[in-house]
Amino acid sequence: MEANDFNIPRFLAALPLFSDLSADELRRMAQGCMVRRLSRGDTIFRYGEPCEEFHVVVTGQVKLFAISQAGYEKVIDLVGPTHSFAEALMFGDKPYILNAQALTNTLLLTVSKRSVLGEIECDPRFSLRMLAGISRRLHGLVHDIESGALHSGMQRVIGYLLREHQPDDASADAVFTVALPVSKAVIASRLSLTPEYFSKVMRELEAQGLIEIDKRDIRIIDARRLQRYGLQ
User: Fold this and answer.
1) Residue 214, exposed/middle/buried by CB under 10 A (0-12, 13-18, 19+)?
2) Long-range contact list for 161-167, CB < 8 A, 24+ apart?
3) According to the model, what pLDDT value does residue 141 have?
4) Quick check: 90 and 49 in contact, CB under 8 A?
5) Are 108 and 63 in contact, with CB atoms under 8 Å apart?
6) CA dist list (Å): 11 to 64, 71, 191
7) CA 164 to CA 151: how far, in whole Å?
8) How many CA atoms, within 13 angstroms, populate the side-chain half-sphere of residue 192?
9) CATH number of this structure's domain 153-229
10) pLDDT tens digits along 103-130
11) If the chain, 232 residues long, is cut into consecutive pieces of 10 residues, what is the mean pLDDT of each piece?
12) CA of 101: how far to CAs of 29, 106, 117, 154, in Å?
């Protein structure tokens, strides 16, 4: 997909945040948007920089991360297509408190603060949709913190593999493949694990006949048994 050919109003209309806007409102909002094509490793923003917009991933993967005083990196979140980030900071007149980097070739939509505030002035209901989106992200981060504090490393890895597939579904017996969107080291950091421990868990699951590993493609053989294995 070429950035120059990207239809911003159509993309905005497909996002829950903007789906209720009229055609005129979408066109007005699109005027405050910019499409950026990023290569793997490109920086989107750095800690301490002013926040004057929020971002939506069109294609690709973005890493949100912090760096400790000792120089260690901790992945806070991985953001994929149609998901947004940095909305809350935009309203607080605060600088970015994290770093953001493209993990793959990425097409990114940047929405200016001015456009968002203008839309809120025209229709205060728009602010409620913004708050709902921010609330969902906060809920997800709190859930991740709880998982990291209360669950074992094994449970965290299994939870990640089954995050989009519930073993109690009618199709739970079906074999399916999970494609890891980024490197195992990045996922390990996201799960607060060392890369070595993450790899050890994956090897154990494969030895138990629960998964098959083919580079970044993880074939789930038995989702129900995999879920139960994490509870042992």
Assistant:
1) exposed
2) 161/211, 161/218, 161/220, 161/226, 162/220, 162/223, 162/226, 162/227, 165/220, 165/223, 167/223, 167/224, 167/226, 167/227
3) 61
4) no
5) no
6) 23, 38, 31
7) 18
8) 13
9) 1.10.10.10
10) 999 999 999 988 888 888 887 777 777 6
11) 73 82 86 94 95 93 91 88 85 87 95 86 76 65 56 85 67 76 87 90 92 90 85 66
12) 25, 10, 26, 28
pTM score, whole prediction? 0.71
Look at the chain and count its residues.
Answer: 232
| ∠ CA 203-71-44, rounded to 5° | 90
**Euclidean distance between CA atoms 141 and 76, whole angstroms:** 9
**CATH architecture label of 3-149:** Sandwich (2.60)
Decide if 85 contacts 54 (C-beta within 8 A).
Answer: yes
Q: How far is the C-alpha of 231 from the C-alpha of 226, rounded, in Å?
A: 9
Residue-wise pLDDT for 60-74, tens only, equals: 999 999 998 888 888
Query: How confident is the model at residue 170, as a pLDDT?
Result: 43
